[in-house]
Q: What sequence folds into this?
DNA sequence: TAAGCGTGGTT
DNA sequence: TAACCAAGCTT
């Protein structure tokens, strides 16, 4: 343990003073309601405070209690999370709310061990909720705390177990929630990853890295894996005209990338084909000649989509299986995930309903994951950012030539 | 233990 | 443009 009892007392006092004077006014600091603290901690996982604030306000307006959240549909829950990323957080929070209502009679459990059992609640979140909402003298080690402690102890790469031990010894038993938030606040505002403000740090006198001049080298950056690159074809089937336009969307499986979110049917190119496309791609539209792997992928995607959604090919008069060649490309959309960079190549195909043909473009049967959704309102379904972008370009394309022409 | 999982801001 | 980062969790 790098600090004796006297040092620990000094750290507690100075940190709590710092927090009392400099704490930011944030919406989740307006009450100690465990549910509200819990939601904020989940939203803040790997996400900036400024980004979270508006989401948090909307969430609390719609889901003010754990009971209200538990009764909501997963569709609406994801819709309110749309744009925040890491969507498993929303699914886990929703499921955890149901657990709290059913197994805990609607009362959020007050121990680290019990909180830890809830889906989406790990060691950090359990400690944060237990200390902030319930006053439990337990540590809460996030990225900020890791950085602050690594510098205080001048340890290049402290293990999680060591960090928990240190934080547990330091936490103020009288005000554990404020102490833990103070540690995080210090990391966020003063003890920053680059150019830390040591001159205004309340713990400067206790900081070994500062004394050694190594503060900017602590802690060691986490090495990250390679970012995979991919090219994918997206099929934008639409029917109707103008404000009545609808697009065919598919709900993605609950596990994996963008789980539970809705999307135009999309298929990745093989890695080799994807590389070829990226090398040749310059224009803002995708050219598809007969031998193009893009066209092959689009053909396969079109066929399986029509089959799976139960749409008859005669809803594309004169085109049938040749419909893919008649597809119009929309502008490519480049999107970067944490571990994946995708170039989406969207193609649109209008499905027409001939007079007297009631099966022109029927609704998919309810047991499929497909649905026709109004383009303008997006049907209220949750969409990933890249899909919003694809649908926006369809809107602007359809808007031209419709009433009034393009918007100035 | 390491990889998978989003997005937007900053450098 | 690319790399890096931000109140982590799950498998």
A:
């Amino acid at each position: 343990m790098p600090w004796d009892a006297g040092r620990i007392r000094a750290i507690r006092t100075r940190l709590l003073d710092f927090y009392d004077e400099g704490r930011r006014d944030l919406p989740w600091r307006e009450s100690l309601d465990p549910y509200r603290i819990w939601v904020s901690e989940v939203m803040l996982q790997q996400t900036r405070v400024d980004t979270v604030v508006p989401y948090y306000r909307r969430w609390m307006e719609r889901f003010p209690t754990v009971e209200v959240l538990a009764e909501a549909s997963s569709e609406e829950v994801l819709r309110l999370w749309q744009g925040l990323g890491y969507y498993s957080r929303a699914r886990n929070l929703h499921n955890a709310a149901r657990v709290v209502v059913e197994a805990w009679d609607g009362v959020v459990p007050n121990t680290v061990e019990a909180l830890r059992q809830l889906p989406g609640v790990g060691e950090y979140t359990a400690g944060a909720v237990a200390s902030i909402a319930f006053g439990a003298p337990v540590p809460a080690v996030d990225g900020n705390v890791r950085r602050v402690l690594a510098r205080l102890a001048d340890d290049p790469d402290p293990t999680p177990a060591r960090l928990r031990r240190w934080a547990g010894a330091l936490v103020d038993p009288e005000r554990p929630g404020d102490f833990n938030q103070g540690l995080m606040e210090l990391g966020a505002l003063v003890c920053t990853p680059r150019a830390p403000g040591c001159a205004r740090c309340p713990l400067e006198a206790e900081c070994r890295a500062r004394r050694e001049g190594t503060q900017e080298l602590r802690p060691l950056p986490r090495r990250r894996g390679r970012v995979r690159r991919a090219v994918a074809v997206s099929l934008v089937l639409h029917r109707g005209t103008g404000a009545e336009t609808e697009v065919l969307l598919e709900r993605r499986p609950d596990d994996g990338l963008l789980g539970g979110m809705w999307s135009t049917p999309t298929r990745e190119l093989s890695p080799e084909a994807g590389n070829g496309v990226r090398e040749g791609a310059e224009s803002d539209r995708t050219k598809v000649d007969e031998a193009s792997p893009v066209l092959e992928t689009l053909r396969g995607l079109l066929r399986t989509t029509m089959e799976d959604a139960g749409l008859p090919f005669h809803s594309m008069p004169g085109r049938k299986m040749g419909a893919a060649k008649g597809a119009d490309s929309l502008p490519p959309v480049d999107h970067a995930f944490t571990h994946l960079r995708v170039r989406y190549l969207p193609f649109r195909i209008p499905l027409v309903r001939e007079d007297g043909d009631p099966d022109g473009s029927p609704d998919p049967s309810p047991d499929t994951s497909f649905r026709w959704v109004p383009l303008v309102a997006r049907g209220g379904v949750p969409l990933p950012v890249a899909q919003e972008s694809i649908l926006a370009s369809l809107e602007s394309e359809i808007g031209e030539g419709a009433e009034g022409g393009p918007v100035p």
